[in-house]
Write a structure and sequence with these properties.
Shape: globular
Number of strands: 10
Strand order of the largest sheet: 5-4-3-10-9
Helix content: 25-40%
């Protein structure tokens, strides 16, 4: 059965998106990305060399664009103007690439999104023809506004970026998922495989992570675990879990034909 993730009219077989920062070198980056099975990789344009410095190693060599879909992001941007400028640069560096991840941060301590600036940047980028996947607060109303603007995917945080705290508010995520007509992907806060599985069991279309893999003691092994977790969580969601009960008097085995009855 085909169960592709569709973003901006393109199909992907993997529902796990991974970041490319925080690894010890590009060799480890490639090994972890390959182990994850991810087809979409995020790139912090302000922090990663993808041609800005021809004298330094380039991520393009480790993860060729012919093999992976690049998702340039605006990590480190704290204003709409800065984010828009960064993604215009990314489009030039990547030969007109228009699929981008927008994030406008509120402060350097929590990295919580600045939603007024995010909305402002999203409006500009959509008008300029970018296909915007947007990092946002887990606010169902603002998620709907972003979708209405034309964003191609909504990416609410599960908990703070890099915290590894997992999904702190599943109810808000569920409200966003039930309302959205575009893909909803958890972005930020995943710490281990069970967090990814829970996100998928809630009905998320995918999960994006970086620190949970790059910050593990064995990033490549964790990348493989995350791949399995996303797949298992998706299958569990599609299967439909049994209802929760305080107790059940119904035995799991048949009672008819019991020996001696």
């Amino acid at each position: 059965m085909s169960d592709s993730l569709i973003i901006a009219s393109k199909a992907y077989s993997s529902r796990l998106l991974v970041g490319t920062g925080k690894y010890k070198d590009f060799a480890e980056t490639r090994a972890a990305v390959k182990a994850s099975g991810a087809e979409i990789v995020t790139v912090a344009i302000r922090r990663t060399n993808i041609g800005q410095d021809p004298n330094q190693p380039s991520l393009l060599d480790a993860l060729p664009p012919a093999e992976f879909t690049y998702l340039p992001n605006t990590a480190g941007c704290y204003s709409a103007d800065d984010a828009v400028r960064t993604l215009r640069l990314a489009r030039e560096l990547l030969d007109g690439h228009d699929l981008v991840k927008l994030e406008v941060l509120g402060d350097p301590q929590t990295l919580f999104p600045n939603m007024p600036e995010t909305l402002k940047a999203a409006e500009t980028l959509v008008k300029e023809g970018f296909k915007v996947m947007v990092y946002c607060a887990d606010d169902p109303i603002q998620a709907k506004i972003l979708e209405g603007m034309g964003c191609v995917a909504i990416m609410p945080l599960a908990s703070l970026i890099g915290s590894g705290m997992g999904i702190l508010n599943p109810w808000n995520l569920k409200l966003i998922i039930e309302s959205a007509k575009v893909p909803v992907l958890v972005d930020a806060g995943v710490g281990t495989a069970s967090d990814a599985a829970i996100a998928m069991e809630l009905g998320c279309d995918g999960v994006l992570m970086n620190t949970a893999i790059a910050g593990a003691k064995n990033p490549v092994l964790m990348a493989g675990a995350m791949k399995k977790a996303v797949e298992a969580g998706r299958e569990a969601f599609l299967a439909g879990r049994m209802p929760k009960k305080l107790y059940s008097a119904t035995p799991s085995s048949p009672t008819t034909g019991i020996i001696g009855s």
